[in-house]
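Predict the assembly for these two chains.
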Amino acid sequence: MNPALASLGARSPHRLVTPLDRVHVVLSHPSHPGNIGAAARAMKTMGLSHLTLVNPKRFPDDEAIARAAGAEDVLVQATVCESLELALSNTIFAVAISARHRNLGPEPMQARQAAPEILAQAENGKVALVFGNETAGLSNAEVQRCQRTVFIPANPDYSSLNLASAVQLICYELRLAAFDGSPPVITKAVPFASPLATNDDVERFYAHLERVMIDTGFLDPQQPRRLLPKLRRLFGRTELERDEINILRGILDAVEKRIDKQGADR
Amino acid sequence: MNPALASLGARSPHRLVTPLDRVHVVLSHPSHPGNIGAAARAMKTMGLSHLTLVNPKRFPDDEAIARAAGAEDVLVQATVCESLELALSNTIFAVAISARHRNLGPEPMQARQAAPEILAQAENGKVALVFGNETAGLSNAEVQRCQRTVFIPANPDYSSLNLASAVQLICYELRLAAFDGSPPVITKAVPFASPLATNDDVERFYAHLERVMIDTGFLDPQQPRRLLPKLRRLFGRTELERDEINILRGILDAVEKRIDKQGADR
């Protein structure tokens, strides 16, 4: 643990180990400390926590801490080492993240297709995702230390993903693959809804609406055009709730009362 | 075009228009210019180019330019406006990106599931992805101006995605839905008998409805309860067509005329 970061946090309390806990993000020769912090934050938002830095230009660094926001714990626990070889020791599977095709590198796979295999490997041991330097990317030698090359399908006219953005996208794909399309989300409250209106409720609303349309002169029963079918089509696709029917009929009641009252005043 | 940015680039040469070209990223009240630049870069890597800023704290700004890397053209062409309402004028479909659940907001959908529908809507007109302020997120009123709420499944213990990271992930999902595998499918059958109403049309309808509700005594402006948000929720899920707006406003006009006429007869 880095003394400069030691005060920032401690290892989080023990919890269930998932395959994501065995996936390590390795940044090779990162130049900008801001990107290291942003990568830590990106990892943590997707439930990853193990960061390894190979020869970072500046680390630890205040800019890394600032950009990490609430993910300083990932920085505190980060491992710093001098070569990719050391970073990959004890890994059973390493993936090079690279947009460039290498003649001699492993077959490139798209991130989404690669995610299930990466997780399957993580069931068996430590797995590494290897990201290159911001400007130069990964060298051929680095890519050749890996068992897969993974790319992010980007705009061919401008594929310049920020380093932390690349980390974010790969970790996102892993999280979604890990939790099989339905990852646990923040306590999702039951959305506001009242019970659905019955067919009778809805028909009474249509009758009421028709009456008001006639009373106000908007609908001429002799020449109804297609107003009612169009309104049925509109409200028919919404699956009106009981509460909503009450509001709509409340408006119609208010209109009728206002008209009657004025009529009576005359 | 912003004079301070005018030297940075011009509109890119004409090319094939895709649904992604009709998707606008709207950042509401962004605090940090660095995030604006990083969002522009994130957009461009995924082939999006239309950025709208609602009341940015600092823009244009050198930090935005620096973080945009090669995506300054997105900043140069960005639109700055004073309210979300203005930002959404002429959009036919708006999506609130929000992790927080709102009782009266539109039904939340996961980004991956929402992407095909967003693209399908973009076939018909301008679509907006609305992102909130870095600290406060989107207000309930802002969410209620949108037809969908979309969330990114994140670590429930730390879901603090950076703003540009959220932009990156949503744009990535859209790009993959647009270009990967099967063509976008409309998840919800929406018949398009008449063109969809624009946001401005819909807002004018809400304003008209509110006026009639007040005039008839149904809505007490001093004690509005939650009538308007509930009505926004109802009509927000239907994707109103222009023709339907005309009918609904025709009814409201007829009610107003009837009330006025009677008032005048007294």
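The first helix of chain B runs from residue 33 to 45. Residues 1-14, 182-192 of chain B have pLDDT under 50 and may be disordered.
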